[in-house]
Amino acid sequence: MTEEQKSYRQIFKATTLFGGVQVYNIIIIIIRSKFVAVLLGPTGMGISGLLTSTTGFISSLTNFGLRVSAVKSIAATSSAGNREEVSTVISVLQRLIWATGLLGTIVTAFLSPWLSQLTFGNKDYTFAFIWISVTLLFQQLSNGYSAILQGLRQLKFLAKANVIGALIGLIITVPLYYFFQFDGIVPVIILSSLTSMVILWQLSRKTGVIPVMVSNETALIKGREMIKMGLLLSLSGMITVGVSYIVRVYISNTGGVDQVGLYNAGFAIVNTYVGMIFTAMGTDYYPRLSAVAQDNQRARQLINQQAEIAIMILAPVLAIFLVFISWVVIIFYSNKFIAVNGMIHWAALGMYFKAAAWSVGFILLAKGASKLFFWNELLGNIYILGFNIVGYRLAGLEGLGISFLAAYFIFFIQVFIIANHKYQFAFDKRFYEVAGLQLLIGVICFGIMKTLESPWTYLAGIPLILASVILSFKELDKRLDLRTLIKTQIINFRRKG
């Protein structure tokens, strides 16, 4: 097996591990979303979305980007093989996440009347914000424990946390919404956040890394390194969440809370269900890229490999969503949410460009180029906000899908130019061939859905879905020797049985 095949297989292995977890999570989320859609409807989902997006904005302001900067610090230290230094970095991180988590809680509780007025136009949700302010502490602690597992590449523990957390979240959510409906929104947010934190804390203790006592001077030095990088990441995250928040408030004021619920539901499908593929791949990708980031040639090779795998896995899923989106929306939610179909069609095309931009964009984080990352994200968010407002004003929910496509097409070009200029990055010919063919299939699927009526859409669309699947399988087989890998897994499974 060549080194290139080993690298592709490592990417595929991590993706398979977390891909299986994400499929499980999707099933859980479908069940939960179905209950939420039926019990709360678009209005309830809108209220929940506004509460969580508001606290998410405060969190992005107070978390100092520690999750991302800590992963880089832990991964770099761990790759050097110095376990004592790893323990020191983790001990410093634990101090920082407690301090920043408490800061977020205090700020949210203090600003609760103002947040309620700004978000909902009244102060009726002041106590709701006071109650859920504690989730900022829970979330920041979860971020810290997750960073430890990811930085040490303890992927199985991280996968286990996702599986357990999703199941317990379902067990918590459904009864509370069934018995209390809208009054269950705040308890669900709090208990879900607390559960996730406890699970990650327990699993992070099993890594074998023993925390050490560190002096205030050491904590200041080590902490400054993480805070320095994390501060700009935090500002960037704040801008991203702020844009999302502004868009939701604008939709609420212009079209109503139920429109926010539809918007949340539509982009939950695009960014959560489809975007879970990014989560599956990025969990291992970021630490691996950080380890080779100083070698531009090795970094370029890894980015190309990751981008190819991302497109090959994502494209068949997008083709399915484009053709069967009406059924997807009804299964995930209910027929009350059919209005988001047009938005999702446009956004699905944007995901092809987001996948490529996502793969390249990690180089800025891996290089520690926090200032460049900040300005890149700031510029991207400026035109994303502008496109969203104009798109919604001109074409409603479908306009938001069009703005998503336009924004990520431009963002892809922007990220590529930066990486090419700063780090001599370029896509290989193989990437353009695979991505070009898959994008063509996606565009044809899109055209079919916009011009034909059922059942002709399915008769024309299903062969295209099969073509996308076959193309991805063939290309994966070239890079991974996928047939042999599958046969080996089957043989091993039979032996264990």
Task: Please characterize this protein's 3D structure.
The relative contact order is 0.11. The longest helix is centred in the first third of the chain and has 60 residues, at 3-62. The radius of gyration is 22 Å and the shape is globular. It is mostly helical. It has one domain (3-492). 88% of the residues lie in helices and 0% in strands. It has helices at residues 3-62, 66-79, 83-110, 112-120, 126-132, 134-151, 155-180, 185-204, 216-255, 257-274, 276-292, 296-332, 341-366, 370-423, 429-451, 456-480, 482-496.
Largest sheet: none
Shape: globular
For the record, the count of structural domains works out to: 1
The secondary-structure element order is HHHHHHHHHHHHHHHHH
pLDDT averaged over residues:
82
Number of alpha- plus pi-helical segments:
17
